[in-house]
Model the fold of this input.
Amino acid sequence: MTTKMIGLSLAALVFGGCSTSKELTPPAPLPTLSSPYALDKQWQLQLSAFIPAQAEGLYFESTDSAVFFGVPGGYVTKASKTPQGRWTDQVIWQKKMAASLTAGPTRLDHQIFVGTGKGQLIGLSEKTGEVRWQVALSSEVLSRPVIGHSQLFVRTVDGKLYAINPQNGQVNWVIERSLPNLSLRGVAPVTFADGTLFVGWENGRIEALDARTGERQWETQFLVPSGRTDLERLVDIQAGLRYQDGRLFALGYQGKVAALNPETGAFYWTRDVSGYRGMALDDQALYLVNDESRVQALDKMNGTVLWEQTSLEGRYLIDVLTFDSNQLVTADRFGFVHWLDRVDGALTARVKISNDLGTGNAISRLWSEDHTLYTLDADGYVKSYQVQASDWYAFEHPNDPQGLFAQHKDDAQK
Done:
């Protein structure tokens, strides 16, 4: 039986009463930085607190006017993007699931889909939150449902992958793969592209499946376990695979990062690196956070390291996202949001959103849309921030209000 770890996203690795042989890196002191950005809080909603590792499968979804989110305590919420002043106006609807919320939400055809710790996949009305259907799967749902070929694809913690009809919850097909005795907390969602599902399994294998039937097209051993103990042999593909421009990108824990041919599974290039957070892509580069919270940019074509930012080492960064045309954004477990320049990795901005002691508001999920940031933190707060010019930047550039989202790294490092 496979045992899931509590999660690398915590301040330490925990598995039962055992400790790891991997030495934890203390948080790096933050370099002095004059941030051109400030965050103007638009609204916040307090739900239920949780352990950060419990939120690995939770994300944000949106329409033009509303945002959807969930917390491990079971609450699924639809909120207005526009500040309303009162909770009863900000929250369009909110539903409490009977079990812990572990995955989603995903939106399709005016429905919202979430997964629970009791193995339920649930379809709700986007308009009202009414439960339209629910189906009992074999075990805990830890991966966000993914849409493709008018189906929902969802993984469960026992090594099964389901294809489900989003209209009624009917299971179209299911496959099962054997898993190692030990793996990280969480399950990477599948990646859908051009009629194919790409799956990174906890045993270090990558597989391509026909999305219509679940039939295997190819399989490759991406990571090879080594060592004497289960912990040493831990090779888990926790980061979701990324597909772009005819290439498939994968990142593994205690393993490597690679670009693969999506038609055959053959490697274009590989590079030794260990990571488990979500990656970002643009036309030139692949951006990732390694397991020591160093941010790296790699050339998509050959895997060459373009730059590495080490100033955030040990700060337990979450997934890295693209922001505007020339920035990356990420957040840490100490309540800071960080921006980096995509060209050379320079730190360009920083904003603190935790309390003054730095002990609260450990950010578990960050989402960016149209210069608005949404955060989910371990205290159970969901917050909406408008990114705007800081007082310092407005003073230094009184005649440049539109230049905020251009490149100002030199100013920031004064």
User: Anything to note?
Assistant: The radius of gyration is 21 Å. Residues 391-396 form the longest helix (6 residues).
